[in-house]
TrEMBL record:
It comes from Agrocybe pediades. Its EC number is 1.1.99.29. It comes from the Eukaryota. SUPFAM superfamilies: FAD-linked reductases, C-terminal domain, FAD/NAD(P)-binding domain. This is pyranose dehydrogenase (acceptor). Residues 90-113, 272-286 form the Glucose-methanol-choline oxidoreductase N-terminal domain.
Length: 650
């Protein structure tokens, strides 16, 4: 059967927020026709989606992997020493949840309160936070949920490196916590949880949880994939449908092949922080000046569309670990034997396989001490006083350990590695995205804005030092991979010390060049001494400058885009009101992370789901229907007995 050309509700964009809205509404009322239109491919039964351990492959930009779209800064940035940054974004049903790193964290309570919008306080949102979760870890607080569609667990395995990391973190003043995601704790470390179902070993993506589950049992949810929404169609200022085009422009002479679907009741735009503003602008919703420039009729003059782009920033530093450590390096490097072993292990018992993990087993949230604050300079101190001081639940930085090098292994020497990620959670910098043409295939103007506020350097510098102190105190530590650290002067006491001589001999026992002394260029470190009591490294001003240059050269997205269609008063540049209605229009809502008026200190999948849940409630209220709880059973829920693991798929 072909698809209808008129439905009740159209959801444009199948990321986490869009999947929640489409799935919840369709399940609530089988007589309601809902269409979900997604620009990327369907994720169903794709083994490169559901096997958790292969997620880094989704970051390959090789002309074959089309699960991500790569936004490149249009201009070189003086804040990044002339670099252009790249922000990869999901391009597949499930959005980020089908390709992300599966790290589970949640925003602090004050982050939601800071939205300053009735209905959106942490207290009011708590029931929705709970209803989306199937939390599979023990806990001693009452903020998690147990019968929701999104599974959260430790995955199939945790490496010993995580425990090593927690012990070393404690040694530098970061105590252990058994739940850092209680909306309140802002300075502690923990075993990070993952969006992995511990019974099936599979990724817990939003499409499987909210959309496939409903399509399995009802026939009122229509799914269009590989279909890019080009614009919303208006009658006056009332949204009455959308036009979409094929995902790739392969038509005759590049002619625009639009299909139009009408929506009787509502259009919901949920194409993500970088997709949603482009759809609005192509529809005539945005700054009047821009509309005139690109030759479009202005339906609603909203200069805030596409502005105030925010993200979290990361730098990553790589360390050598002992040859006895369990890391994913050989698997990622492409060692055939290791790959066969790990894939087979997953096939036989996915629930406890090494691939049922993202190898990101532990992490921390931190706030600076008074003494540390003093060293962080006037710009950050001004931000601290305004933003953090009176909100003790807000961490300044996150850190996490990956049991492998998160890097292109073809560019690395042999050996085993850990990666320390440093994430800045509330950057002061801001960027923007705007269309350059009404043509949906034309690239937009994009300015990531990374590091364009000087206050953002100090906390990253501080946490680089912090993670370095932790790494040096780990039992598995065997040196710094100098190429993935700041370039300190060789005579500085802060200069990196690469592989230790014993590990070097272990890796290349017959190597004729191991241990040669060629000045400062080739000189392995002394053998590792597990009993050594460490003093903190002392950094000079010149060393700090080396760190700041390294930050400018290497800082990247954490793929946590938000803020381009903010929920705040129209006169302050707002785009949607508290019910997510787009100002100056009717029957049109935005539901995704673009609506955040301020940052959220978390890996943002949990927040996208929550915005989706809130959006589903608001649309349901508008339509006079009631959501059904709990949601439809997730398709890959485990079959209890007697069935081999691979048959537990559906
Ligand atoms: C590589 C990566 C790693 C990440 N790691 C983590 C992590 O470990 N933990 C965590 O919590 N969060 C992580 N995130 C962030 C998290 O996945 C996102 O915050 C979340 O997916 C945002 O949800 P969204 O619904 O706002 O938008 P998106 O996920 O961006 O979804 C938008 C959807 O709309 C589609 N779309 C765009 N334009 C159009 C159009 N014109 N027409 C039709 N469809 C369109 C896109 O294809 C996409 O499917 C990661 C994200 C990425 C990309």
């Amino acid at each position: 059967m072909g698809h209808p050309d008129e439905v009740d509700v159209i959801v444009a964009g199948g990321g986490p927020a869009g999947c929640v809205v489409a799935g919840r509404l369709a399940y609530a009322d089988p007589s309601l026709k809902v269409m979900l239109i997604e620009g990327g491919a369907n994720n169903r039964d794709d083994p490169w989606v559901y096997r958790p351990g292969i997620y880094v492959r989704n970051m390959q930009r090789n002309g074959i992997n089309d699960k991500a779209k790569f936004y490149l800064d249009t201009m070189a940035s003086s804040y990044l020493r002339g670099r252009q940054s790249i922000v990869p974004c999901a391009n597949i049903l499930g959005g980020g949840s089908s390709i992300n790193f599966q790290m589970y964290t949640r925003a602090s309570a004050s982050d939601w309160d800071d939205f300053k919008t009735p209905g959106w306080t942490a207290q009011e949102l708590l029931p929705l936070m709970k209803r989306l979760e199937n939390y599979q870890k023990p806990t001693n607080n009452d903020t998690h949920g147990y019968d929701g569609p999104i599974a959260i667990s430790n995955g199939g395995t945790i490496t010993a490196l995580a425990q090593d990391f927690l012990r070393a973190s404690d040694a530098v003043g970061i105590p252990f916590s058994d739940d850092l995601q209680d909306l309140d704790t802002s300075h502690a470390s923990e075993i990070w949880a993952k969006y992995i179902n511990r019974h099936t070993g599979r990724r817990s993506d939003a499409a499987t949880a909210y959309v496939h589950s409903v399509m399995d049992v009802q026939n009122n949810l229509y799914l269009r994939t590989n279909a890019r929404v080009s614009r919303v169609i208006f009658e006056g200022t009332k949204a009455v449908g959308v036009a979409y085009v094929p995902a790739k422009n392969r038509g005759h002479k590049g002619q625009l092949m639009e299909t139009i679907v009408r929506a009787r009741k509502m259009v919901v735009v949920s194409s993500g922080t970088l997709g949603t503003p482009q759809i609005l602008e192509r529809s005539g919703v945005g700054s009047k000046e821009l509309m005139e420039k690109v030759g479009l009729n202005c339906v609603s003059d909203l200069p805030g569309v596409g502005e105030e782009y925010q993200d979290h920033y990361t730098t990553l530093s790589i360390y050598r670990v002992s040859q006895e450590s369990h890391t994913l390096d050989d698997f990622l490097r492409g060692d055939k034997e290791v790959q066969r072993e790990l894939f087979q292990e997953w096939e036989v018992s996915p629930e406890k396989a090494r691939l049922s993990s993202n190898a990101i087993d532990a992490g921390f949230k931190i706030r600076p001490t008074e003494a540390e604050l003093k060293e962080m300079g006037p710009e950050f101190n001004a931000l601290w006083d305004k933003y953090f001081k009176d909100k003790p639940d807000k961490p300044v930085m996150f850190g996490s350990i990956v049991s492998a090098a998160y890097a292109d292994h073809s560019l690395l020497p042999p050996g085993k590695y850990i990666t320390m990620f440093q994430y800045l959670e509330y950057p002061a910098s801001r960027g923007k995205i705007h269309i350059t043409s009404p043509d949906p295939y034309k690239e937009p103007f994009f300015d990531s804005g990374f590091m364009n506020n000087k206050a953002d350097f100090a906390p990253i510098r501080w946490s680089y030092k912090k993670t370095r102190e932790i790494a040096r105190r780990m039992d598995a530590f065997r040196g710094e991979l100098a190429s993935h650290h700041p370039h300190f002067h060789p005579a500085s006491p802060a200069a990196c010390r690469d592989i230790d001589i014993e590990t070097a001999k272990d890796i290349l026992p017959n190597g004729f060049t191991v241990g040669i002394h060629m000045g400062t260029w080739h000189r392995p470190s002394e053998p590792y001494n597990a009993d050594k009591v460490h003093d903190d490294i002392v950094y000079s001003e010149e060393d700090d400058k080396a760190i700041d240059d390294w930050i400018a050269d290497h800082v990247e997205t954490t793929w946590h885009s938000l803020g381009t269609c903010a929920m705040k008063p129209r006169e302050e540049g707002g785009v949607v009101d508290g019910r997510l209605n787009v100002f100056g229009t009717q029957n049109l809502k935005c539901v995704d992370l673009s609506i955040c008026p301020d940052n959220l200190g978390t890996n943002t999948y949990s927040s996208a789901l929550l915005v989706g849940e809130k959006g589903a409630d608001l649309v349901a209220e508008d339509l006079g229907i009631k959501l059904k709880l709990p949601h439809a059973p997730v398709p890959h829920a485990p079959v209890p007995k007697g069935v081999p693991a691979t048959q537990q798929v559906r």
